[in-house]
Amino acid sequence: MISTANIGMSYGGQKLFEDVNIKFTPGNCYGLIGANGAGKSTFLKILSGEIEAQTGEVIITPGERLSTLKQDHYAHEEEQVLTTVLMGNEDLYKLMIEKDAIYAKPDFSDADGIKVSELEEKFTEMGGWEAEPEAANILAGLGLGTEFLEKKMKELNGAEKVKVLLAQAIFGSPDILLLDEPTNHLDIASIQWLENFIDNYKNTVIVVSHDRHFLNKVCTHIADIDYRKINTYVGNYDFWRKSSELAMHLRGNENKKMEEKAKELKAFIQRFSANASKSSQATSRQKQLDKLQLHDLPVSTRKYPYVLFTQSREAGKEVLKVDGITKTIDGVKLLDNLSFSINKEDKIALLGNDLAKTTLFQILMGEMEPDSGTYTWESQSLKTISLPTTLPTSIAASTIFSIGFVSTQRISTILS
Ligand SMILES: Nc1ncnc2c1ncn2[C@@H]1O[C@H](COP(=O)(O)OP(=O)(O)OP(=O)(O)O)[C@@H](O)[C@H]1O
Ligand SMILES: [Mg+2]
Fold it and tell me: What is the CATH number of domain 1-64+175-235?
């Protein structure tokens, strides 16, 4: 079990949080949320002991193992993938090194024999024999098959490195698992694997993520950093959001009612305080007025991002109709008699071959002619939006279909 007692932290005079007293209970997954710069990563670093809080302390049950998702993607460039994952369980890894070093001794003595048999016993107790298959299993779940096990980390691309570091963090079922933005750079299949993994996890998970779909899937609790406090709530992200908005709304309403009541009381007091026959009533109303207390409505540090599309006219029911589109490029048939229609308010993720997706978008945007087939946009007022060129064309084009705010990270996850 991990808990905090009176944790407080500021940077350069800016207070991030104070008096944080939380018990994180095993079996739960806590989604740590808050505005950008609220102090989520800082709080995780305090929990892991990477940095020390200015006040208070972190208490971990003795003997429990804490593991974090490492942020330095280049920390193990010369190591093999399998070794990097095994390093996640530091005690087990040290024992393996110690054992191997003794076996490798050219002058292996009786004393070495005794020592190594003790280490072997400990190795078995720690589940050492299952370590490599378990590591390989996690990697496979994240889409890195056996062909990756002996590769060096420096041979991997950025997304593959992130997967190995994630496997390292979760390897050996740590008692406390801290994950800062684990879904960044992960493809949708790996995110789903991680969601299942956390769902079935028996120990404590504390995760920071800006992906509310992911938070909804995995969280049993939400820990919210706001107003320089960290408050925990039971439930997933959507439940937290709805209930906190409702609570704020109710407090706002109550304040409004109290303000109206105060106005009435003040008017009465002003009117009748000089009137001898009503002065006792005025005094009693003054007492009521003194008792009225408005709720504190502190200003949140949270800012909700949104993109506003103003429509020149309301879209009709059927936005797009595609009828039998076929396209072959360089002898490869990318689209074969494709037909579908898109209705207003549909939300569509396009999955599949990158070239086929891009070709379809280019045809629909009028940049390329299909070999056969037709398409019809319902409205002439449709516009495409250019996103930065570092994003694949298919993402830029996909904004045609998006109505309201969709996180680009989620789109790229879906399309990659
Ligand atoms: N080592 C440091 N020295 C000075 N200021 C720091 C340091 N680390 C973090 N900060 C500041 O503390 C605040 C909280 O940072 P932190 O990285 O914990 O936020 P966060 O909630 O994780 O944000 P994000 O959502 O952007 O990841 C920020 O204003 C940041 O600039
Ligand atoms: Mg952060």
Answer: 3.40.50.300
